[in-house]
Amino acid sequence: MTDPTIFALASGGARAGVAVVRLSGGGAADALSTLCPGASLPAPRVAALRDVIDPATGDLLDRALVLRFEGPASFTGEDVAEFHLHGGPAVVEGVLSALGRIGGLRPAEAGEFTRRAFLNGKMDLTQAEAVADLVDAETAEQRRQALDQAAGSLGKLYEDWRQRLIGAIAHVEATIDFADEDLPEEIDRAAQDRLAVLAGEISAHLDDGRRGERLRSGVHLALLGRPNAGKSTLLNLLAGRDAAIVSETAGTTRDVIEVHLDLGGVPVIVADTAGLRDSDDAIEREGVRRAADRADRADLRLLVLEPGDWPDVPADLRALAADGNAMVLLNKVDLGGVEGGSFDGADLEGAVLRPLSAKTGDGVDAFLADLTARVRGLALAGAGAAPAPTRARHRHALEEARTSLEAALAGWSDRGAELTAEDLRLAARAIGRITGRVDVEDLLDVIFSDFCIGK
Ligand code: GDP
Question: Which of 223, 226, 329, 359 to probe ligand 1 with, by most ligand atoms within 8 A of CB?
């Protein structure tokens, strides 16, 4: 039995100029004919203007462009039809309910179109994930990464690694089958060398500072400092709108407020946290605890100091700047202090010090330029660099592959060819799971549940 034909609104739910309803499966062309009676079926890949009629009532639902693709030359690899409707709720609802009354058709589940594309061999799993990433992309660099991955950049890399492992397995198995004929030593050496190179490539790929994942999900910044240092003012300046409450009463930002920004094409999530200080107030203490937690998890900390904190920066604030993963903002320079030479940055060694005034805007452009460069460094590799893993799923499988590969290399001569081959098979399987070449049935629900309906 063939799969049922599925249909869904593929464009967003809001009122719009155009809404696209997409169908995929053996019944797609018939459904198109049923809703467009009395007119010929358009040729594949040629748009045609048609009256779309509700077959139950004979009501005109819309006058719309329709289009069809014949499998396998379609997104899903199946027959596909599309209605490009006027994007009003009554039009869309009328067409969806008319389709729902046709036998053999049912509404699509989240990600089902892309899932079928994967199952029909139109794309591998990394490409399917890239479709979801492209739909979610909010910045230019996210779009670039998703498009590269959709074109197969990551999948090709992993498939190349898997093929090299399969070649090595063949070699090791040959030594099992032909043990008596003593394969030349150099061939065995060369096979080991090639695998050591591969292990190095996997390590370098993993050792990218999670750039690809950061670009996908956002670089996390935490604004930290004493109450009233100017964190909220700075956040509002960054966000260009009143996102946090700015007030002259200390301790107003008790929870963590997040603002999403696009800095140089990289998505950034800035968290404004409660001012760090001792407090008797239980709610404020909780806010301080959350701020410390944010500081721990942030990719980059923005420590905001005001003249009262200089030059003897308190130890708890100094600790936040200690590991070089921070920018120190000397705020309120309009009040004087920095030029007077009272600030000595020596006790904040390794930190980038940036004098500015969140109030007058002095120094803010230079700070933003620094920050943008820093954020791009955290999320982007250099030009022409190999693609990066974009999901924890990739990373876990690659770590598993590397572990098995290293076990194979470590025990190469003393553990026997059978065990070596088995380790190499485990490594190849781990990588195959990333692209969906091997046993991924159990993974599919997890991966495609990320999608929205109609994709
Ligand atoms: P937060 O508690 O760290 O979030 O501090 P706020 O952003 O609420 O700012 C506390 C006070 O400092 C407010 O009255 C701000 O207007 C003021 N402030 C913030 N930045 C500056 C600055 O650069 N210069 C001056 N003079 N005042 C500032």
Answer: 359
